User: Fold this.
Amino acid sequence: MLNIKKVIVVIDPASKSQAGLQKVLQLARLINFDLKLIACEYTPYLVEGYYFDAVDVPRLRRDYLKERKSMLEALAEPLRKNGLTVETEAFWGHPGYETIIREVDSFGADLVVHPTRRHGAVSRMFLTHDDWQLVRYCQVPLLLVKENLWKEKPAILVAVDPMHSRHKPDGLDHKLLNVAEDIAEGLQGSVFVMHSHRPIPLSGTYPEQATKEHKEAFENLLKDFDIAETRQHLLEEAPEYALRQLVTDLSIDVVVMGAISRNILSDVFIGNTTEKVLDYLESDVLVIKPDDFKPPPIRA
Assistant:
């Protein structure tokens, strides 16, 4: 299920730990892949005619990117000593996610590792951050990393939706579980699985009936997988709250969840569980798309 030959790691120059690189090294014990470290740079100080003479701007921008390239090379050298084939490149681009999407196509990446951090409420409303835009547009698996390092034997939580109540296509839950089991087997980690639901008020669905239907769907899904019952969690709670609590209680390193393309209205009004939990989970999030995923067009 894991068919990763090329990985892009987006570097945050402001981060001292570069936790994403540590996690890439752990994955490299499981899979052989080529790596590319990239930095997506943009500063108003180097916009033509803004602070400097327009004639000086191209030279100053080249010098700026040259410094970033040197930083990437310094990060790449230890990885090369660990046997990885590593390229580096610093791009000038705004917004950054568009540069990343283009580089995914150019490099032929099978996985993108992107740092994420907590955002403000106004920014959440208007989807201005690169990591959220990548959830929408990136066709390949996307690992959104926080500062926490993984344990030597990581705990992986798979969030499934066997009722397909949010219009997830058939087969995506199986894909999520297969990916999680592959990673856990390679890193000697543990797989947990959760499904959370809450009857919608005034929906006409009796709570007892809904509970029974969700339980049956959850059990039927897991018949195909060897996951101990003690690691199966069926909860009556809003998914974002249930995920947050389980991540804390189980000391989860990575949450694996699916994302689908959505219409324009739901792009503006955040309704996707994936987007809701990004700010509130302390763990990393591995976002997987269905095989037939088609990204929405990037709007200017």
Remarks:
- The first helix runs from residue 19 to 28.
